[in-house]
Amino acid sequence: MQHRLGGWLPNDQNVLEKWLAKVIAYVEHPSRINREFHPVIKEFKDFIESDPVIYMGFHQMFEQIPDKPPYNDNPKGEGNPQVRNYMCMLRLFNHIITTAPEYEENDLVGFPINAILDWPMGTPAGLAMFCDPRVNEMFKKMFYSWSAFLTTSDSRYVLTDSANGWFGLQASIALPNFDTTFVCDPTAPYHGYVSWDDFFTRRFQEGVRPIILADNNDVVNNACESTIYRIQPNVKASDHFWIKGEPYNLRYMLNNDSSAELFVGGTIYQAFLSALSYHRWHSPVNGRIVRTEMVSGTYYAESPTMGFQYEVGDDGVPVPDPAGPNNSQAFITSTAARAIIYIQADNPAIGLMCFMAVGMAEVSTCEITVRTGQTVAKGDQLGMFHFGGSTHCLIFRPETKITFDPSLPTDSNIPLNSAIATVEPL
Prior knowledge:
- This is L-tryptophan decarboxylase PsiD-like domain-containing protein.
- With 426 residues, this protein is of the alpha+beta class.
- 26% of the residues lie in helices and 20% in strands.
- α2 (39-50) packs antiparallel against α8 and α3 (52-63) packs across α7.
């Protein structure tokens, strides 16, 4: 299923529904349903209820969910969408922002808020609301509060060897050889990590991802531990990025910067990061940082061509295919929160290139760790995603005659720092 790319949501829809039903039952238990909202959730509620257009939109996004199976059923078969209204949504948000993700039910619900909003995202009202800058400002505030919790020692409660812990048996199967792959101290509590964020932005052990052909400027290396999403030549300055096929729109991707014109007719390489993988970005070339930019954007806007879809399950029964932002990956390069880093490569056949990190859903906190004028070598860190990973692009000018290795796998992670392309000399 497309929306399972990167493993951010379980492959088994039943696992996701079971998780969501459990959390709804928890927050709507009579002893908790009137629980006081966190200040940021109280602000979100007041925002929805104080604006008539927003109030209408947050009602319509639930009302517009198709009234037919499986969208009108929850796991108990009670004939209602699981999240029925914005108050249920807010109660779930209120719970989520004080918790850390567990490796639960032998799987990962890595996008818990994406899971809550799966159906509303596919509605016209949902698209309108999730594209509204004021709504996205509320999400941004909420994520800052959640991030504040995930960087505290209180968030380490999931970093244990319990059944749902990140060092338990099932998680260890999903993350084999963890102690020899990542920097940690397996003899210390929580493997030495000081917070959930510290665990999720973990580093590779020295030598685990060697820099292939480090001094060969004709070779472009992999900037992120990631799986190929698309390689697109002859990219246009402006295109209808919301239509089927999701063409790229350079002007919007680069935030209407004049430099977009330099890349018209060039090539975009896009790849996505796995939920269980490594979440830092590294330079694909030897060169110098020309400029960096952080762009605020949307969090839950998805391509309107996705809508409500069905796929046939293994048993031959149609099942819903929720089209979240992670199967709108080309679309969100023009709309989502993102970090842009321009690099002047030492190789004149490459010249100016661009690295773009794009946040998907709640995985939208990008941190740039390089500065303008800094010299970078292949493999040097450029920045990182917090709370996981997302998708990224390498953007090349039309003068750069780049050839990507045809043997690159398209269904699995390509190791960081491996060679992915060669450039024809001038």
